[in-house]
Amino acid sequence: MRRRFLQHIYFVSGLAPGLIAALAGSLVHAQEAVEPEESVRSRSPLLYIDTPVFFEDGVDPVMPQKAAFAEPEFDPESDPAFSQRSDSIRQYSNILTDIELDGGAWDRGLVEELASLGRLQQQQGDHVGAIQTLDRAIHVNRINSGLYSLEQVPDVEQLIQSYMALGDWEQADIYNNYLFHVQRKAFGVDDPRLIPVLDRLATWNIQAFNIGYGDLLGIRLRQSQMMFNAAARMVGLHFGKADERFVNYQRNIANSAYLAARNPDLMMEIERPEYRNMQQMMAEGLAEQRQVLPAGFRTGERALLEIVVHYQEQNDDTYALAEAITHLADWYLMFGRHRDTLENYKLAWDMLQELEDSEELTQRLFGKVTPLPAFESSIEAPDAFYRNEDGTEALSFDYADLTFDVTEHGLARKIESISEETADNQAQLSKLRISVRSEWFRPMIVDGEPERSFENHFRYRYWY
C-alpha cells in the first residue's frame, strides 16, 4: 500500500507527467490498484523535493522537520506510563466482559468503555487493536442511537487517526467522507459547527493528492477548493472576516489552485460532463453560489485578493499587508502577468519604506531570492507516508547544494551543483537541476523593481 505513492511524482519537483488521481464525489471511494513490487530506485531516481532553504554565508541552513526524522511513534522503554496503561487495558477488558454478560453484545454501556479502551490502545501504539475496538464501539453506538448519530463522531475521529498511522489510505478515505456526511446531515450547510468538518475533509483531500492516492486527483483538488471556500464563507458569515481562520482557508484555496495549474492534465480529465455534474452537485450541497469553474489562475487570484482585503481592513499591520500584496505579485509572476507583477511589487515596496524599521522589513521580504509560492499551505503528507509497515523509513533522502542566477522574471538559470557528484547520485542531481529550471522564484527587489541576481546558493533535500 505504501508503494502507491510511486505513481505520483510530486508537484513541487516540476517533473509530474500526468498523474493519476483520487476520489470522485460524495461517498465514491476509489480502490487502490495492485501494482508490481519494484524498488524506489527502479521506478525513479528522484521522487520528491522539499522547498529549498537559502544558504547565507556562515549560516548552516535549517531544513524543515519531516516525519521521517522523528522518533518512532511509540517507544515503550521511553514511556513511563506504558505499564500503567497496560493495567488499565486489562481493567477495561474485564469491565467489558461483565457488561456483555449482563446486557449482551449490543448493550449501550459498552460504547463508552470500548471508546476508552481504544484510546488506550492507540496510546500504546497498538493501532490494529484500537481499530478493532473503536469499530465495535461505533457499531454498538449506531445500533443503539441510529446510523447518523453524532455520538459516534469522536470514535470515528479516533478510528481515522489509527488508519492514518498505519497508512491505510483506503479506510482513511472512507471514514473521512463518512464523518463529513454524518455531520452535514446533522448540522445542515450553514451551521458554524460544520466549519472544522469542512476543514478536515478538505485537508484530507489535499493530503491524498500529495501522496497520489486513488483515481481522478483533479476531483480531489476541486473538492478541497469548494470545501475551503465554504469554510471561509461560513467563518466570514458567523465570525467575521477578521477571524484568522479566514486567511488560512484562503491560503489553502490558493495552494490548491496552484496545484491545479501545475497539473492541467488532471483538470482536463475532470471536465467531462459526468464529472462536471458531480462537481456542481457538490457545490450545491455546500450552498456554494458560484458556478463551478476550472480551478487555476482566477481561483488563486481571488483567494489572494481576499487576504489583501483582510489586512487592509485590519489596518494595524502594514508589514502583513505588504506581504499579502507581495504574494499576489508572486502569483502574477508565476502566470506571466508582468504588468500586474511589477505594480504589486512596487506597491508593497513603497508601503515598507514608510515604516520606522523599513530597512529591516524590506530586507526580510525582498532582500533575497524566495522559492514560490511563498504562501504555501502547511498541509503536509501524512507521517505514515514516510514509513513502511514495520515503522522503518520507506523513503531515503539526501542533500544537495545548488547555485543559480534568478532573472527579473523569476526563472533559474546557470544552475550548477556544488555538492559532490558520484555514480550513486549523478542521476538524482541531474533531475534535481532539471526540476529547479522549471520552478519559480521571487527575484531580488531593489528600489521597488525586480532585478537579476547571481549565484544564489540553496540547499535542497530530495527523497528517493
Short description:
The chain is of the alpha+beta class and 464 residues long.
Termini separation comes to 17 Å
Indicate the low-confidence ranges by residue numbers. Answer: 1-44
If you compute it from the alpha carbons, what radius of gyration comes out, rounded to the nearest whole angstrom?
Answer: 24 Å
CATH superfamily of the domain at 78-187: Tetratricopeptide repeat domain
The oligomeric status of these chains comes to single chain
Which series of helices and strands comes N to C?
A: HEEHHHHHHHHHHHHHHEEEHEEEE
Most strands sheet:
5 strands, antiparallel
Mean pLDDT: 83
Number of strands: 9
The dominant shape is globular
Structural class: alpha+beta
Please estimate the helix content.
Answer: 40-55%
What's the total helix number? Answer: 16
Q: Beta-strand percentage?
A: 5-15%
The CATH architecture of the domain at 78-187 comes to Alpha Horseshoe
CATH third-tier fold name of the domain at 78-187: Serine Threonine Protein Phosphatase 5, Tetratricopeptide repeat
CATH class of the domain at 78-187: Mainly Alpha
